[in-house]
Amino acid sequence: MAHKPDTASSATPAQPEETSQSLIGRARSDDPEAWRRIVRIYGPLVYSWVRRTGLQPCDASDVVQDVFTSVASGLGRFSKRDESDSFRGWLWTICRNKVNDHWRRAGVGPQAVGGTTANLRLQDFQSIQPSTDDEERSHVLQLNLRAMRECRGLFEPQVWNAFWGVVVDGLAPADVAKDLGLSVWAVYKAKSRVLKRLREELDGLIVLEAS
Fold this sequence. Notes:
Strand content: under 5%
Number of domains: 2
Mean pLDDT: 81
Number of helices: 9
């Protein structure tokens, strides 16, 4: 697939690439924009989780709201004690609990509300572990892309396009360099700089491979 420069972002001046707190750190400090970005990044994933139980869109949206209300109040308690801990895993646990809360409020459980199909869907949902099936992996890929796009304004358009061409589109650095009128060295430098900044900004939210 041919690389297409990100012309939309060229109209907006890039923000300074200063090292700062991660999105999670700023959200803990009551930065409303950081919180909105986290919700934009993870909201579709949480909604997809909830919908897998068979809940209708309006009920699923209510559960998603409950999930993020709980996340907002408990974000200060989230921490990565080791590599096995992740924000997504923590969020999954909250989501599972809120789905169970919904069914308890609805009555005796999904069997009474939706019959056998709903019960089987809930059982399937309870057995899912993040990253263990194809549908979940697809959602995680989209999660990573949303997270990276949230950071696009931190970089000059040409730097961002060089990174995106190599890392996301999978193009050869030489081809990206030719397309953007840069040296191959400049493309490698842009890739490294963007990855470093993304790791700082998205620390705890997603895992980026080493450059």
